[in-house]
Amino acid sequence: MFEKVLIANRGEIALRVHRACKELGIQTVAVHSTADANAMHVRLADESVCVGPPAAKDSYLNIASIIAAAEITGADAIHPGYGFLSENAKFADIIAAHNITFIGPSADHIRVMGDKITAKETVGRVGIPLVPGSDGAVETMEDALKVGKEIGFPLLVKASSGGGGRGMKLAETEADLERAISTAKAEAKSAFGDDAVYLEKYLVQPRHIEIQIAADSHGNVIHLGERDCSLQRRHQKVLEEALSPALSPEQRAEIGEITRAAIEKLGYLGVGTVEYLYENGQFYFIEMNTRLQVEHPITEQVTGVDLVREQIRIAAGEKLSLTQKDVTFSGHAIECRINAEDPKTFVPSPGKIIDYHQPGGPGVRFDSAVYDGYTIPPFYDSMIGKLIVFGDDRDHCIARLRRALAETALTGVKTTVPLFADLIDDEAFQAGDYHIHWLEEWLAESE
Ligand code: ADP
């Protein structure tokens, strides 16, 4: 096992990794920007190193500073968390060149999955069902129109290097196609420095369902069921649940095994998530994330598996602590991403937290790095905590969630707590009857 892990992240995920390390008897090193000198991940870690000024590009994305911090402190592994450098293949390569272990998959797997066109081609070859679309990048309008004729409209133009919902444009009809392609290309070029785009059939009312997988270096590969992340705003997840209210145990076993077998064929190592859209009983791959996801705790709650612990153990060359037969599901879990934002306009609301009481009691877990008197800096994303609630079944989980939201106290900044309180009282939500566009429609109606 590792002796010392450097955590190349901030906020709740830095704390989550710290906790898993401590339980494994590992020393931790926090890195931080000057804006985060008083952050909880810095306070709790065994050692800390300042890696630069507030802007993420100069600190949390500053590879040279982070490697220097690992060298100075003698860390033998680096955990990247999610976001920042977690899916940066060059970072994984540089870490390996310094004889430090990257807690994640190989740089090659990161590279393949980071390019969505290559990712689709790769997983298509190992039996994963795909969204019908162009065969690779579309180079000319002639090619694009041909795809439109074959597949029909609406079509979605997507950036091959896309992420965070950016670089995606809808073409309702043939007349929109040229403009959708040129705006998607321009957006992708400026956001990712790569203007390659491809076309996909636009699914009108699908759910977003993703399968959690874990693979060790001894040939063991398991899936841990699914998460339903259909409640989104601007293609960003807002509330997730495990398991999905839309799948039967047979459907779960089927897509779980298809995914597991594919990951085994790819020789993938570590934890990862295969994301699908699900419509009319069919699954369609959209992308694979080669890292821990924000919403991993809901899977932990329904399976009893500590995913971060498994991830660290895998990187250290140990065997998965369970086999597929040992993976069982019980109860229901929901996660609310609580942001420091206006609950109506979603305008970020950084500032000082004055009165803080976090929810607790049976079945309630609050993964957060904020504390009473903490000042939320304006430089990073606005998530301040993940409220994760577990119940015997979905109704019980919702009742607990309602109770936990009501006892959450946090003043000084605006938060999205009131949004969740309203959302979970909606009848369609309670019936589990929603799709990826449902939340935006609901928000527009409740304006
Ligand atoms: P990103 O990497 O930018 O998050 P994804 O490919 O994961 O992009 O897609 C993000 C979200 O965009 C999905 O969860 C879904 O809501 C929507 N989306 C993506 N592809 C399609 C599609 N073919 N049809 C309809 N919606 C889609």
From TrEMBL:
Pathway stated in the Swiss-Prot or TrEMBL entry: Lipid metabolism; malonyl-CoA biosynthesis; malonyl-CoA from acetyl-CoA: step 1/1
Cross-referenced SMART domains: Biotin_carb_C
Domain of life: Bacteria
Substrates-to-products reaction catalysed: N(6)-biotinyl-L-lysyl-[protein] + hydrogencarbonate + ATP = N(6)-carboxybiotinyl-L-lysyl-[protein] + ADP + phosphate + H(+)
Keywords: ATP-binding, Biotin, Fatty acid biosynthesis, Fatty acid metabolism, Ligase, Lipid biosynthesis, Lipid metabolism, Magnesium, Metal-binding, Nucleotide-binding
Domain (ATP-grasp): residue spans on this chain: 120-316
Domain Biotin carboxylation: 1-444
Gene3D superfamilies per record: ATP-grasp fold, B domain
Coiled-coil region: none
EC numbers: 6.3.4.14
Pfam families attached to this UniProt entry: Biotin_carb_C, Biotin_carb_N, CPSase_L_D2
Protein role: This protein is a component of the acetyl coenzyme A carboxylase complex; first, biotin carboxylase catalyzes the carboxylation of the carrier protein and then the transcarboxylase transfers the carboxyl group to form malonyl-CoA.
Subunit architecture: Acetyl-CoA carboxylase is a heterohexamer of biotin carboxyl carrier protein, biotin carboxylase and the two subunits of carboxyl transferase in a 2:2 complex.
Name of the featured protein: Biotin carboxylase
